[in-house]
Amino acid sequence: MDNPSPMNLGLKGKRAIVMAASRGLGYACARALAAEGCDLVICSRDASRIRAAADTITRETNARVHPVAADVSGEGEARALVAAAVEQFGGLDIVLHNAGGPPAGDTASTTEAQWQKAFEQNMLSFVRIVNAAVPELKRAGGGRILTIASSSIKQPIPNLVLSNALRAGIWGFAKTLSRELGPDRILVNVIAPGRIQTERIEELDHATAVRAGQPLDHVKRASVAGVPLGRIGQPDEFANLIVFLASEAASYITGQAITVDGGAGNAL
Prior knowledge:
- By secondary structure, the protein is of the alpha/beta class.
- The chain has helices at residues 24-35, 47-61, 77-89, 112-139, 161-181, 199-212, 216-225, 235-246; strands spanning 15-18, 39-44, 65-69, 94-97, 143-148, 186-193, 256-260.
- The mean pLDDT is 93.
- Strand 2 (39-44), helix 2 (47-61) and strand 3 (65-69) form a beta-alpha-beta unit.
């Protein structure tokens, strides 16, 4: 057996796109990749917020960060993000797909318009960034495609029918891609957060409290009680896994859906 060697992340100088990166998990992941030496294109619908995020990440890490105002559900936005990476940094090695979660609701209360919007924002945005990025990843000799989904891909969550359905579709697409792109050394993985401390969790807790007619504090305590680690996760803890999967250290991991939930899920 070979002697063990220090883990080599090999991320310095890698060129990455991080979508929906002005706040929450996207921001945490962008900052973590920048800290490892990646050059970044980051995007958000809000131009001022994404510029502020880029300025902060650059100041903290000295990384090269190029902000782009873009709506990930738009048809031409994915191509624009890839073009920005090529123009700014000469190519592309890593894509982190991220999109805001669809609104809470059950099947009976969800309209066809909401289904269409959620499909565009979550599922089709992933298809579009993959189609735009794969030629550049192949030119680079391989790369990483990562997408942030939800723990609902393993265990559907009550009152989140849109997320349950569409995130599962994303997982199915990602698994298919991992088989198709493996020969090109492009690794594809899904990262499924559970309860991580973000604005999204605050919104879902509020929706649950309203639906159940319970105080918000009660809902929050109940949710923490269901986590074996006894606490909510932090965005930086989630971002650590993204960095690993984007790195050379994860060179034999593809076609996987990895849950980051403190052990809350009960699915095998």
